[in-house]
Amino acid sequence: MDYIDPHIHMVSRITDDYETLARMGCVAISEPAFWAGFDRGSADGFRDYFRQLTEVEPKRAANYGIQHFCWLCINAKEAENVSLSRDVIAMIPEFLDRPGVLGVGEIGLNKNTRNEAIVFLEHLDLAAKYDQSILIHTPHLEDKYQGTRMILDMLEDDSRIDHARVLVDHVEEHTIGEVLDRGFWAGMTLYPITKCTPSRAVDMIEKYGPERLMANSAGDWGPSKPTAVPDLIFEMRRRGHAESFIRRVVYDNPVEFFSQSRNFNLRPRQSESLEHLR
Amino acid sequence: MSSPKQIFDETFLSMRSKLLDIAAALDRIDRAADGVAIEDPRRGRIDEAIRILAEDSPSDERAKKLQNLFSRPYDAKWRREFGL
């Protein structure tokens, strides 16, 4: 089945992973800007990172027939440095019109601090001013519930933010209901230990329905599995779900959400491409 | 939708294995404590989690309850505290 991974950090993955994803049916990915595992020292470090996301990764992906899209921001962890964050936010508009840039993300909170909230609000302002979609990171483990509620508070306080253009990622059983009830999109991250297993993610799909719900691998430099979305597909098939129902979660929903971004130009696989052989 | 029997057929051995892992880890902690009272608050949260799992009334909220148990509380007045 063709599928889209709406959240994966391919800058941290080897080229063989692109080949494996392609063999598993992945036709497109979206890559949010994130923490590299160390704090960068200057805005120029982010400028190079944004060039990597908008120039280098699309070419690596294209070699395997995968379309690459991305989101730009300074992540919540480095947002503790407000001065650096403001320099990076001021630079982002240079990149917003580049092909494949879908919006601002993954912004959010990490330890739910005042500085993180300040930078989150300034990212929201940037997104509103430039009419951008938003992809949100919610915190880890014990910080997730508190941080998610704080994020929802800030989103709802800004009347310029269209809830249908916001994807709140890494939802779990205790946060998914609030996110969907308020009209946002929700993403479930399939991780080996933290976040969701494929089984729990399918439980949530069955409980809440497929509307405005996606699943991703968030594959990165830590413990993660870039082929986690096919694991979800396998689990849904094992439980007897219809192919059209599965496809809605892993393909149609990402397409519907991303289509709100002006730089989203998915080229679906063309069966007609074999016409010349007939 | 699978029947309860089907789900047990599919998941019983996995659930059994995970429960044994928890039992063995608690045994290991007790051996390490060597009879001294365990002050670590995480032990209390594990005990509370096991109590939630053992609730015998029908529920499809056990996972959500465990998530809430392992979460920091949310205070709706956080913006006032932060001056935002």
The CA-CA distance between the termini of chain B, in Å, is 47 Å
Shape of chain B: flat
Given helix and strand content, the structural type of chain B is: mainly alpha
Name the largest protein-protein interface in this structure. A-B, 24 and 19 residues
Radius of gyration of chain A, taken over Cα atoms and rounded to an integer in Å: 18 Å
- β-strand percent of chain B reads under 5%
Low-confidence stretches of chain A: none
Summarize the helix and strand pattern of chain B as letters.
HHHH
Please compute the radius of gyration of chain B using only Cα atoms.
Answer: 18 Å
Unreliable segments of chain B (pLDDT under 50, ≥5 consecutive)? Answer: none
Counted beta strands of chain B: 0
Helix content of chain B: 55-70%
SS field, number of helical segments of chain A: 9
Q: Which strand order spans the largest sheet of chain A, edge to edge or round the barrel?
A: 1-2-3-4-5-6-7-8
- The gross shape of chain A turns out to be globular
Strand content of chain A: 5-15%
What keyword list fits this structure?
heterodimer; A: 278 residues; alpha/beta; 8 strands; B: 84 residues; mainly alpha
Structural summary, described in words:
The complex is a heterodimer of chains A (278) and B (84). Chain A has helices at 15-24, 43-62, 82-91, 114-129, 144-157, 176-181, 198-208, 228-238, 243-258; strands at residues 3-5, 26-32, 67-72, 101-108, 133-137, 166-168, 185-189, 213-216. Chain A is α/β, with parallel strands linked by helices and 278 residues long. The model of chain A has no long low-confidence stretch (mean pLDDT 96). Chain B has helices spanning 4-33, 41-53, 62-69, 78-82. Chain B is flat and about 55 Å long. The longest helix of chain B is centred in the N-terminal third of the chain and has 30 residues, at 4-33. Chain B is mostly helical. Helix content of chain B is 67%, strand content 0%. Chain B contains four helices and no strands. The termini of chain B are far apart. At the A-B interface, helix 4, helix 5 and helix 7 of A face helix 3 and helix 4 of B.
